[in-house]
Specification:
Elements (H helix, E strand, L loop, with lengths): L1 H36 L3 H15 L2 H13 L3 H14 L5 H12 L3 H13 L5 H13 L3 H15 L6 H11 L2 H14 L4 H14 L4 H16 L4 H13 L3 H14 L4 H14 L3 H12 L8 H18 L5 H18 L6 H14 L4 H15 L6 H17 L3 H14 L4 H16 L3 H11 L5 H20 L4 H14 L3 H14 L6 H14 L3 H14 L6 H15 L3 H14 L6 H16 L1
Length: about 625
Amino acid sequence: MKKALFLSSILFIIQYLTPTICSAQQSTEQMASYYYQNREYDKAIELYEPLYAHTQNIYYYQMLLGCYTETGQFKEAERLVEKRIKKQPRDLYLYVDLGNIYLKHGDRKKAEKQYAAAVDKIDRDSKQASDLALAFENSGRNDYAIKTYLTARQKMNNQLIYVMELATLYEKSGAYDKMTEEYFTLLDRAPGNMGSIQIALQRALNETSSTELAEGLRKTLTSRIRQNPENQHYLEMMIWFSIQQHDFDFALTQAKAVDARFPDQGAQQVYRVAQIAANNEAYGIAESAYSHIVAKGSSHPLYFDSKVGLLNTKYARINQQHAQQPKELEALQNEYEATLNELGKNIQTVQLMRNYSHLLAYTTPTDNAKLQKASDLLYDIIEMPRVSANTVNEVKLELGDLLLFSGEIWEASLLYSQVEKANKNDILGAMAKFKNAKLSYYNNDFVWAKSQLDVLRASTSKLIANDAMQLSLLISDNMEEDSTYETLAYYAAADLMLYRNQLDSAWNLYNDITVHNLSHSLFDEVLMQKAKIRMKQGRYNEADSLLQRIVDHYAEDILADDALFMLAELNEQQLNNADRARQCYEKILLDYPASLYADRARKRYNAIKKQNIQ
């Protein structure tokens, strides 16, 4: 009875005192941390020593070791680590701590001895090896971290462990050949890891400015493909690598090789190259890839998608050209007719129908029959069952544009208004509002147009907001300068003629503005529109000169970055002057970093730079 009473008393005292003890320990720890953060290491030592002695907690150990090291008390630090090693001999990272103390004390030989001893003591415990390697990494000794993983791999007799860790360390050390060897060894033994290997290599390629990694990777892949021509994984890796390097031509060559050797799966690789090449505006490669699949016949599972992709790519390529060739346009028109007759007008061919409508209305020599056929295609989509509401509204905007192009202004405005009303709070509604405002501008209703454009300047779409701001400023600047709006009316009329492809008439009106208004604020806008006319006419050198005048004389105005980007594309795509294009892209990045073109300019700048290196 007395014994039970004694035990219950002891338990009561423990329960009563424990919160107080914990609170006191927590308070001491906070004070010690405060001293450490303020570099008052001697005061921190006085508090950390009893805390560590009482608990043997690893955190207190690390803080105390840090205090000893910072105050130059290397003997105390050494004793601290040695005592912990005796109690925790399997914690091999402690040898790294001891080696670091010797190194700071100036004894490199003893430090290296401790590091080597730690590696020698590795056994089959994977956590032990990982902790040791991390300690070496944190100490800046990647060489010993590599030795740790390699020794652990040998002890465990497993060559597939620590692949990612070793590859990362080799990358940091610049040993790219060993890095790629790790990844390809893993690929050989566990092909299911191809995705994670590609992600890791993509990161490495993006983060290094040196060409050594890319060149080494290409050589390794080429060598392995020669030695193992039937290894599908190597071929797929080469396709992936070529795409990363934007070498779409070589990627397609490899994809066709996969298709030849593995016909059940190879076409997927060709189709993938086609999609990526098209997205990167490598239209010739994309067309070749799609055509390769189409040639397999209508029974092939990718025939339909490839047929659609082929036409969409041809349309994108021709649409990118400012001056189209009549024979090429006629051939594409015939191809659209044949394809729609073959595949039918349905949800899967909606984009083909939209592109064909645009081709008929805007790029081929326009006549009433073609305009009617173009509008009929759009009406067919609007009335098509199961087409999404969003697609219907997009097509209504396109139909409105076509009606405006053909002179049916009020019908166009009605369609824009329908879309705006149905999509009040989204980007499509904002686009419809912008189109209606621009229509009013064409119609010389400048005050109302400006009021609508000012609302759109707060649009969530940067593109719409930017376009609205440009047109609003153009109107307001010229309303203030000319109370009769006469010059602005001339300019709006010329803009409408340009939109309707009445190029000579538009040119003459723009010329009238510059002749009769020798100091008018519209001059940079006039230069821009005249440059667009010359580009449509294929007179690229004249367009280049006009755009350069904007860059030279209106660098602070709103159209400067537009002119620079157009100048860059013109030189890259039409004038074959990649160096000048690169300079223009670079100027956008340096002088107009907030431009809407900044991201695209950066991509094109890097692509040209990479091509020059290759």
